[in-house]
Amino acid sequence: MGVLDIVPAGVLTGDNVRKLFDYAKQNNFAIPVCNCTSSSTVNAVLEAARDIKSPIIIQVSQGGSAYFAGKGLANDKQQASITGAIAAALHVRTVAKEYGVPVVMHSDHCAHKLLPWFDGMLKADEEYFKAHGEPLFSSHMLDLSEEPKEQNIATCVEYFKRMAPLGLWLEMEIGITGGEEDGVDNTGVDNSKLYTQPEDIWDVYDALSKVGPNFSIAAAFGNVHGVYKPGNVRLHPELLGKHQAYASQKLGGKEKPLYLVFHGGSGSTKEEIRTAVTNGVVKMNVDTDTQFAYLQGIRDFVLKKKDYLMTQVGNPEGADKPNKKFYDPRVWVREGEKTLVERVKVACADLGNVNRL
Ligand SMILES: [Zn+2]
């Protein structure tokens, strides 16, 4: 039995998202989430998932969403981020079925000051729900981890009460992911905040499970966004096992009750990833590595074909030779897509997410 026996191809919503994550947890694998900023990167991620027969998660960050709509648009009220996120979701909805893979369409970190972005996406979900009986997105992340725990949880509960009836998944963060991503700089944060305690996780579970079952927790276990020299980051994915055990004991022995999310996963060792997956991580973010992968193909093409790219006409083969087939963006952007496809396949393989359909 594979994933397609449980959920359909295309964008998943409602209980189908949980069914996918349950299947991953039961079969000891996790699904990578790739940050996408354009239709080009979305298509490459879907291509990789199709080639290796894997479900996949696509996410847009607040900055990535604005980029999707166009950097030339004003974003002082999050209008470009809202429009771009909607455009990305509609694009994914339109093409995902053609690739034949189940997709979770997700939005990434939303801190308190970015809540207008979240509100805009939620409004689009509600409108889509009225017309189609399901939300536009599969899932959204709220990251109020900078705030006191009680406030973080209370705000998540409020939003989740609006999201659950639509069939939206909520990902929340408690504890802080270090490093810098998308303009949020946590490089100087207090070390204890980088490791969430089991009691805190339980408080989150207890509060959100009263609203609905479809939520996940990004717990901090030393995670840092970005890629650094080995040894600079101390990941402790074994802590996630303690969170599961604590929650399990509270729930009378229910096995691995938590859906956990791994942020700041770029640069992790295979061993760390394995431990995290064994402990109930169902989703892992790999943004930094896929950014580099997208560049590689384009960079190598430009360096190799430099003499064909300096003028529209004239190259080493002759002064009157046209260069259109080298500077056409479908040629050089495609080279970046190819290297991105390969990197997404590696991310899937690292998480055991291959041949799962
Ligand atoms: Zn993150």
TrEMBL record:
<dbReference type="Pfam" id="PF01116">
    <property type="entry name" value="F_bP_aldolase"/>
</dbReference>
<keyword id="KW-0456">Lyase</keyword>
<keyword id="KW-0479">Metal-binding</keyword>
<dbReference type="GO" id="GO:0006096">
    <property type="term" value="P:glycolytic process"/>
</dbReference>
<dbReference type="GO" id="GO:0006094">
    <property type="term" value="P:gluconeogenesis"/>
</dbReference>
<dbReference type="GO" id="GO:0005829">
    <property type="term" value="C:cytosol"/>
</dbReference>
<keyword id="KW-0324">Glycolysis</keyword>
<dbReference type="InterPro" id="IPR013785">
    <property type="entry name" value="Aldolase_TIM"/>
</dbReference>
<dbReference type="InterPro" id="IPR000771">
    <property type="entry name" value="FBA_II"/>
</dbReference>
<comment type="similarity">
    <text>Belongs to the class II fructose-bisphosphate aldolase family.</text>
</comment>
<dbReference type="GO" id="GO:0004332">
    <property type="term" value="F:fructose-bisphosphate aldolase activity"/>
</dbReference>
<keyword id="KW-0862">Zinc</keyword>
<dbReference type="InterPro" id="IPR006411">
    <property type="entry name" value="Fruct_bisP_bact"/>
</dbReference>
<dbReference type="GO" id="GO:0008270">
    <property type="term" value="F:zinc ion binding"/>
</dbReference>
<comment type="function">
    <text>Catalyzes the aldol condensation of dihydroxyacetone phosphate (DHAP or glycerone-phosphate) with glyceraldehyde 3-phosphate (G3P) to form fructose 1,6-bisphosphate (FBP) in gluconeogenesis and the reverse reaction in glycolysis.</text>
</comment>
<comment type="pathway">
    <text>Carbohydrate degradation; glycolysis; D-glyceraldehyde 3-phosphate and glycerone phosphate from D-glucose: step 4/4.</text>
</comment>
<protein>
    <recommendedName>
        <fullName>Fructose-bisphosphate aldolase</fullName>
        <ecNumber>4.1.2.13</ecNumber>
    </recommendedName>
</protein>
